[in-house]
Design a protein that fits this description.
alpha+beta, Cytochrome p450, three-stranded antiparallel sheet, binds protoporphyrin IX containing FE
């Protein structure tokens, strides 16, 4: 029996069932509509992320038209210089000292809008706003522009996820590119002339081996950050809260021991990853489970399917914040054994930042809300990225 089409409404309702059917019966399949090969086993997806024969040249059509050329498309020396240019902002002492207070402020501001109400749509009131507000503040851009950035990232994300090439979505994405360039380029020039204590200045002025990012590279990177750091963390937080609410005993453990938030997020990235798929393009013919992927073809790497491969994880559909086969200590590093942040040279540069953001937010939410329950049914939405469209909750406010 043929596996349900990835782009069908049935798959949108229950992708996990389709991912399982693909992984077990057609580990390599060709999708006419997307003109792409689809892979779904952990071993194959891991290889596609780690083996340099799989290039990320696909981003030249998938992302470059809206962002310009970004780190995601680079390889070799160019990629490693760019990684070193941006990494200091997202790791270690810089991150904790400078940006955790920014996260706390933003988390509490949003929480204050509903903390005494006893009910909330957590997605509308918190998760879709918090990461983007944090990035805009980190960049040193005005609070009054939050709504603008929110609109831009929604449009860029739609462009990226436009698997059926809807022309209106394309047009909207290209308009966003122009608006964003008009907005950012003068501000980058200002920071070069007079650096401030913000991420935009850091990106504009950091030098590695005598190289700096050009104005257009900084603009492209900031535009990427809005999607890479906004939508993903938003959905990761919503998925994690939903997973914990559905598992009251695990919620109670996290409530009692907040150091387990890191485990809950890592297991969420495995069990219900916000980014469900990523593309690659091999530079040679490659043998994979189920056949050969020809040189130059687009390959859809199904992160969500790989992360539930029973060859890799016991009882993979179960959400378990202490599972023995997920390495929690390495879950936020390139040595991770889940594919939620990809693997290899493009492993998410914002993984530690995302963890810090989710820890700050989840701590605040759990402090303010007791006895959290779902209010009604939950509809999960999206194929490229996936999370609940709304998360209506009832709770008992703490004093
Ligand atoms: C839980 C939240 C997040 C998830 C699930 C996530 C997921 C991913 C994935 C799957 C990739 C690999 C893309 C590829 O290889 O084609 C990636 C790369 C990247 N992410 Fe994240 N991300 C998250 C948070 C963030 C944050 C907070 C930032 C920064 C503010 C960020 C910035 C980036 C950048 C710049 C890259 C490109 C790295 C490179 O090409 O070397 N991400 N992310």
């Amino acid at each position: 029996m043929a596996v349900t089409d990835i782009l069908s409404p049935e798959c949108l309702t229950d992708p996990a069932g389709v991912w399982e059917a693909l992984r077990e019966t057609e580990p390599l399949s060709f999708h006419e509509g997307m003109n792409a090969y689809v892979i779904s086993r952990y071993r194959d997806v891991e290889r596609a992320f780690k083996d340099p024969v799989f290039t990320s040249d696909n981003y030249s059509w998938q992302l470059e038209p809206v962002h310009g050329r970004t780190i995601l498309q680079m390889d070799g020396r160019e990629h490693s210089i760019h990684r070193r240019l941006v990494t200091p902002a997202f790791k270690g002492s810089e991150l904790t000292a400078k940006f955790v207070p920014v996260m706390r402020r933003n988390s509490r501001e949003l929480l204050d809008t509903f903390r005494h109400d006893g009910e909330v749509d957590l997605v509308g009131a918190f998760t879709t706003r918090y990461p983007i507000n944090v990035i805009v503040d980190m960049l040193g851009l005005p609070k009054s522009d939050h709504v603008l950035f929110h609109r831009w990232y929604t449009s860029i994300m739609a462009f990226l996820a436009n698997l059926t090439q809807d022309p209106l979505v394309t047009e909207n994405g290209l308009r966003t590119r122009d608006e964003l360039a008009e907005y950012l380029l003068p501000r980058i020039a200002e920071r070069r002339a007079a650096p401030r204590d913000d991420l935009l200045s850091l990106l504009a002025t950091t030098e590695i081996d005598g190289e700096r990012m050009s104005d257009l590279e900084v603009k492209a990177f900031v535009s990427l950050l809005l999607v890479a750091g906004g939508e993903t963390t938003d959905k990761a937080l919503a998925n994690m809260m939903l997973n914990l609410i559905r598992e009251p005993e695990q919620m109670a453990r996290v409530r009692a021991d907040r150091s387990l938030i890191g485990n809950a997020l890592a297991e969420t990235l495995r069990h219900s990853p916000p980014v469900q798929m990523i593309m690659r393009q091999p530079s040679e013919d490659v043998e994979m489970s189920g056949g050969t992927v020809p040189k130059g073809a687009t390959v859809v790497c199904l992160i969500a399917a790989a992360n539930r491969d029973p060859r890799r994880y016991a009882d993979p559909g179960r959400f378990d914040i202490t599972r023995a086969d997920l390495d929690f200590a390495k879950a936020y590093t390139a040595a991770a054994n889940h594919t939620g942040f990809a693997l290899g040279r493009h492993f998410c540069v914002g993984a530690m930042l995302a963890r810090a953001e989710v820890e700050v937010a989840a701590n605040d939410l759990l402090d303010a809300m007791e006895d959290i329950e779902l209010d009604g049914t939950v509809t999960e939405q999206g194929l490229f990225t996936r999370a609940p469209s709304a998360l209506r909750l009832r709770f008992r406010p703490t004093a």
